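General statements about sequence and structure are easier to judge against a single worked case. In the encoding step, the backbone of a single protein was reduced to a row of integers, each denoting a local shape. The record that follows shows the chain in one-letter code together with its fold in token form.
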Amino acid sequence: MPLDPTDPETFDDTYTDGAQEEEPEGTENPEATEADAAEQHTDVLRQRDEPLAPSGSHEADPADAAEQARVVELNEDEYR
């Protein structure tokens, strides 16, 4: 029977050898705790751009206004 390289089922068990990796019950995901995830989410929210002034104001060029509204993260290590 010829193999069809466009058929995804042809290569399903190539690397797993039929064994499924499952985490035992009761173990938590070690990637990030809820407190760490909340802290990281708070940092991301602080870095959002400020809203632009209403489009009816003709005080500045829209491109200049967008550039001035950008929020840049201050990182002491990158400043040096």
Summary: The chain has a mean pLDDT of 68. The chain is about 30% helix and 0% strand.
